[in-house]
Structure formats: C-alpha cells, structure tokens
Design goal:
There is one protein chain. The chain is an alpha/beta fold. It folds into 4 domains: 10-127, Rossmann fold, CATH 3.40.50.2300; 141-312, 3-Layer(aba) Sandwich (Rossmann fold), CATH 3.40.50.300; 317-390, Helicase, Ruva Protein, domain 3 (Orthogonal Bundle), CATH 1.10.8; 400-451. The chain has 20 helices and 16 strands. The strands form 5 sheets. The protein has a 5-stranded parallel beta sheet with strand order 2-1-3-6-7, sandwiched between helices. A 5-stranded parallel beta sheet has the order 9-10-13-8-14. Strands 4-5 form a two-stranded antiparallel sheet. α7 (150-163) crosses α8 and α19 crosses α20 (434-443). The longest helix is centred in the last third of the chain and has 19 residues, at 400-418. Residues 1-6, 130-137 and 454-460 have low confidence and may be disordered. This is Putative sensory histidine kinase. GO terms for molecular function: ATP binding; kinase activity.
C-alpha cells in the first residue's frame, strides 16, 4: 500500500460503465483509498465543485464530452490536481498528446490492478510536497487560514506545493484578503519553517528609513547612526523575507533589492563589504504591477525576479461560504477579550453578514465582529447591531413592511400592558390562539414577564 493510500487519499473515478465503476471502486477502497464516483463530465464537475480530491481517474470517452476536455477544465480550476485517463481505444499518439498536455497517466483498458495502483501511487507521490514539508493531512502550517471555500482550498494546495521549492512568490489580492497570512503559511510549509519569517510593509515606512530597515547600516553611516543595524534582509538569513506592498517600493530601492536577489549578498548603508544571505523572497501587492511596468514605475527585471510564481487571493465576496465560519471564529476570539459569554449570531444577523459587499474583505469583517461584540447586551447578537456596524440604513419610515411591523409590535405591547402579561387573556383579546400569539411575541422579541408586576417599561 502506498503512503498516499495509507493517508486515505480521496479519488474521483469517472466512467459511464457502471459495472467497471463498481469493480474499480471496490478494489481501490480495499487498497486504502477513499473513492467518489461520477458517470458523466457534468456529474464530475459538480463533484469537483463541492469537495477536494487528491487525484482524478477519468475515462476518455464520456456520454457528454471527452476526458481531455474535462482534464483541461480541471487544470484551469485545480492546477495541482493530477489526472489519469483511461481508455478502451488508446494509441501511442493519443498517449503522447495526453502526456504532453500534462496528464499524469494514460492507461489502456483492460489493465491489471497492480498497474493501476502503481500509476496512482506515482501520480500522488509526484503531486505531493517533498519530505521536508508537511504531509497532506498536517494542517498546522495553514492553521491561521479559516476556510471551507473550494477556491481557497485549491489555492492552499498550490501554496503547499510551491512551499517545497525556493521559488520567489508574488501574492496578489485586495487589501484585507490575508496576503501576509498566506505568506506565513507558505513559510511554515517550507523546509525553512524553523528559521525566521520576517515581514515588512514597503508602503508604511518613509524611503530613508525603509533603506536602513531593509539593508541595515553601519555605525556612523548617517547622523544618528550611533550603532550598527543589521537590517531585515540579514535578519531573515536562512528563512523567509516577506515584502508586503512591494508595489510601493521606491525605484532606488528596487535597484538595491534586485542586486541582493542576483548576488545573494547585502551591503548595509555605509559599509564597504557585502554580507552573504540565504533567504527566500515572498512578495505581495494590491497594485496592478503590469500597469506599473507599463508606466515605468516598477522595474521589469525585478518584477520577473519576484514573480517566478504568482498566487491570487480571492476577495471575501468571492468566498461567501467562508463568512459565517470566519464571523464565528472571530467571535470566539473576542469573547475572551471583552469578557462576555456570547452564544453567536442571530440567523438574520448571519444572513446580513453573508450578503454584505465587504470592500475591506476579511479585515473589515473582523472589525465588524469586534464592534458588535463590544456593543451587544445579549448573548445572541441581533441583526440591528450588524446593520449598524455595516452602516446599513434603516428601512424607510414610509415603507409598508416597516410600518406594518411597527404597528404589530405596538399592538402586542398594548395588549400585554392591558393584561399585565397574561398571555391567555391577551391572545383572547387578539382573537388568536395561544400558540400563534407566542410566535408573534417571539418574532418581535417580547417577553410576557416584562409586563408583570413592576417589570421595566417597554418603549414601542
């Protein structure tokens, strides 16, 4: 049994021959794999859109398409997912073409089970990271990234593969999408994980200070330099240097950084000798660097040095399925900070969060959750607080639905006041049964106890 099988790798098996599907599924499950089946390309695409797979085995001839076309779709959506094609009418030219297009394996039916298992094992081993990196089941490296989104899981699969190499990575994404979190995850999944991860925001530090922070300086290099400072590039020796918002780096410093990447050595300000450095560069930006290149604002040679591999982080609006998960995660963190015992968000509050625009992405969501956590006076956070934090305007006072809701609430309050909180009497006056009347009270957040004895007044 392969290592991947022992780890329970999940396979997607696609074929319109149901007897073959059943036989292969039984054999692969007996070998330690988890198997999901599909009988058409459409069915397979639906499966791929709802869960993660470690490998796909597909027949070349499907009732609604061919395996190579499906493979091209998979490669666009899931670049790190290996695909093995199965065919009853294979030829050498077909196999050569499939392999040249990136297919992990090409088997002609009938094939023996050991040959199939060998191809699966080889494809999984080739797709897996090196031994120095975490195994597919080890999630510690990406523990800071909370997500159930298929798009994010595909991105993380790519990040885990990239982490095993020393290639420079450019992470693109809007502000607040989590570029530094992804960079840190890549570092933790890499062979450099035990060495320092050093981050600097190139747009947050004035140019004269940025040069000293990055490259360091010797004593007396400039007024105020009373002692030597090694700089962040040297601090990241044997580890990872993360240059956030590299698109804001001044042109003069772009030249110096390029020299560091070419020579693998850094010369501090005022020094006559360079010091060797061994580090990996990860960069991030929310700018369009291609436009900056065209405008002459970013060096082309540096661009190709830092952009060996690029990863694109989706906006929060593009991964809405993660919003409730993230909101609850932030709420759990903040309950300790504010010393409150909170049970969560009301269903309509979560609905408001999930449907918001989120121009500030995950960072904005975290701020909204902190605001409602600080202001709530109930264990269950209501929608009104969420709308306030999102600056959602209240319903128009002249709107029919709002007017009807206010009339109904005021009517219930008057009945409860008149009957001193006696629900049976109030329901009789309203000509409603007791169960229906209780549902109305719950809808408007009214408790009969508040109207009994000297309970607090309720403002309509």
């Amino acid at each position: 049994m392969t290592v991947a099988a022992a780890a329970g790798a999940r396979l997607l098996l696609i074929d319109d021959d149901t007897d073959l599907l059943r036989r292969l599924s039984l054999h692969l499950r007996a070998s330690g794999y988890r198997v999901v089946t599909a009988t058409s390309a459409r069915h397979a695409r639906a499966r791929l859109g709802t869960r993660r797979f470690d490998l796909v085995l597909s027949d070349v001839h499907l009732p609604d398409g061919d395996g190579l076309a499906l493979f091209e779709d998979i490669r666009r959506q899931h670049p790190a997912l290996p695909v093995i094609l199965l065919t009853a009418h294979g030829s050498i030219p077909d196999a050569v073409e499939a392999t040249s297009r990136g297919v992990a394996g090409y088997l002609t039916k009938p094939f023996d089970s050991q040959t199939l298992l060998r191809h699966i094992g080889q494809a999984l081993q080739f797709a897996a990271p090196t031994a120095a990196a975490p195994s597919p089941g080890d999630a510690a490296w990406r523990a800071g990234i909370i997500s159930r989104s298929m798009r994010m899981h595909t991105l993380l699969d790519e990040a885990r593969l990239i982490a095993a190499s020393d290639a420079s990575v450019l992470i693109r994404g809007d502000s607040g999408t989590g570029k530094e979190l992804l960079a840190r995850a890549i570092h933790l999944a890499s062979p450099r994980a035990a060495a320092p991860f050093v981050a600097i925001n190139c747009g947050a530090i004035p140019e004269p200070l940025l040069e000293s922070e990055l490259f360091g300086h010797v004593r007396g290099a400039f007024t105020g330099a009373t002692s030597a400072h090694p700089g962040l590039i040297q601090a990241a020796h044997r580890g990872t240097l993360f240059l956030d918002e590299i698109g804001d780096m001044p042109p003069a410093l772009q030249v110096k950084l390029l020299r560091v990447l070419q020579e693998r050595a850094v010369r501090p300000v005022g020094a006559t000798r360079a010091a060797a450095v061994d580090l990996r560069i990860l960069s991030a930006t929310h700018h369009d660097l291609d436009a900056a290149l065209a405008a002459g604002q970013f060096r082309e040679d540096l661009y190709y040095r830092i952009n060996v591999v690029h990863l694109e982080l989706p906006t929060l609006a593009e991964r809405r399925e993660d919003i409730p998960l993230l909101a609850e995660h932030f709420l759990r963190q903040l309950t300790q900070k504010y010393g409150k015992r909170l049970s969560g968000f009301a269903p309509d509050a979560l609905e408001a969060l999930a449907s918001a625009n989120w121009p500030g992405n995950v960072r904005q969501l975290q701020n909204v959750v902190e605001q409602v956590c600080a202001l709530t006076t109930t264990a269950l956070i209501p929608r009104t607080l969420v709308d306030r934090a999102l600056r959602v305007k209240p319903v128009d006072a002249l709107g029919y639905a709002g007017a009807k809701q206010r009339f109904e609430r005021n009517y219930l309050i008057q009945l409860l006041k008149l009957t001193a909180g006696n629900v049976s009497e109030a329901a009789r006056l309203a000509e409603r049964n007791r169960t229906e009347f209780y549902r109305l009270l719950q809808r408007h957040g009214l408790t009969p106890d508040l109207f009994r004895g000297d309970g607090p007044d309720i403002e309509p």
